[in-house]
Amino acid sequence: MAAAARTPERVVIFGGANIDIAARAAGPLDPHSSTPGRVHAGDGGVARNIAENLARLGSPVALVTAFGADADGLGLHERCVGAGIDVRYAVFSQHPSSRYVALLDEDGELVQGINDMRAIETLTPTDIAAALAAIGAGDLIVVDANLPVPVLTVIAAAAALAGAPVVAEPVSVAKAGRVLTGVLPRPWLVTPNADEVRILAARGDAAGLDPVADAARLLALGMQHVWVRLGPAGSVLVSGDAAEPVVTDLPARDVEVVDVTGGGDALLAGFLHALLGGADLAAAAAYGHDVAALAVTDRHTVRPDLTPALVERFRTDAKATPP
């Protein structure tokens, strides 16, 4: 793992924590009218979701974020503590608690998402100084691109000084570019979806999906591993030399989807948990797909019943059932 040559002992996650509001249509969406369906509110945020999944899996995890100093933010902070997440370095913002609204079609697939992340977008390097000082070589650092570029920059510098590897989650097409401008030195691993990797690779045309070629462009920029999420098609892990990359295709589990919200966060959390357990990258990515499959079969952004035992039962059942 370059900086990650040793097995990490703890995950430290910098990024968003917010309230998720998910609305799933009961039938075909009418873009110009109200559609019957179900609306559910719960805890969310890319960084917070990853942290809660890790805590439920039993991995040591710290979350550095900005909570709103309102009822939602105070409740969110309290529930993070209750889930076993270390939030000693989190701060409270003068802005309202961050919120994310997801519109899902009748199959549970995301149609549109809108976020209000002012609390995290106004975070400053000074706000996280204590967290940066506590980074050690045994940490695995995760950043999400909800963070402003100056904050990403100081996190990357502190991690490099400590010898801790950085995993960068691009979050969205709109924010993906922050990974390249803010995370210097380059992250050890970046985890885009197919649209985000195209943006990061500076390929402006949407035609001709080629995630491996796009990932190779990122390897040429100094990243060691690029893990591209392809939704129901699984994912592809691209590593090593840009001219002759090592490519590992990973299938997604065939499950009945209830809600995709939080599936990508569960994928990364499962991967990180397996890494802390000593797995290699390919095995860790496969474990991540198992955790993600469990996530999307539940209406919660993070499954409240998630445990290592649940994952192992799921993996055992999958092996016992022929495809």
Description:
- Helices cover 35% and strands 23% of the residues.
- It is α/β, with parallel strands linked by helices.
- The two termini are 34 Å apart.
- The relative contact order is 0.14.
Can you tag this structure with a few keywords?
single chain, 323 residues, alpha/beta, 4-stranded mixed beta sheet, 14 strands, globular
Topology at a glance:
Blueprint: E1 10-14, E2 18-25, E3 37-44, H1 46-57, E4 61-64, E5 66-68, H2 71-83, E6 91-93, E7 98-104, E8 110-116, H3 118-121, H4 129-133, E9 139-144, H5 149-162, E10 166-169, H6 178-182, E11 189-190, H7 194-200, H8 211-220, E12 225-229, E13 235-240, E14 245-250, H9 263-276, H10 281-296, H11 308-320
Parallel strand pairs: 1-4, 1-9, 2-7, 5-6, 9-10, 10-11, 11-12
Antiparallel strand pairs: 2-3, 7-8, 12-13, 13-14
Describe what is shown at a glance:
This protein has 323 residues and is an alpha/beta fold.
State the helicity in percent bands. Answer: 25-40%
State the assembly state of the protein chains.
single chain
Query: Number of helical segments?
Result: 11
Sheet with the most strands, sense and barrel status: 8 strands, mixed
**How do the strands of the widest beta sheet line up side by side?**
4-1-9-10-11-12-13-14
Residue-averaged pLDDT: 92
Percent in strands: 15-25%
* Molecular shape: globular
Unreliable parts: none
Rg, nearest Å: 19 Å
Classify the secondary structure makeup into a structural class. alpha/beta
Strand-and-helix sequence, N→C?
EEEHEEHEEEHHEHEHEHHEEEHHH
Count of extended strands: 14
Termini gap: 34 Å
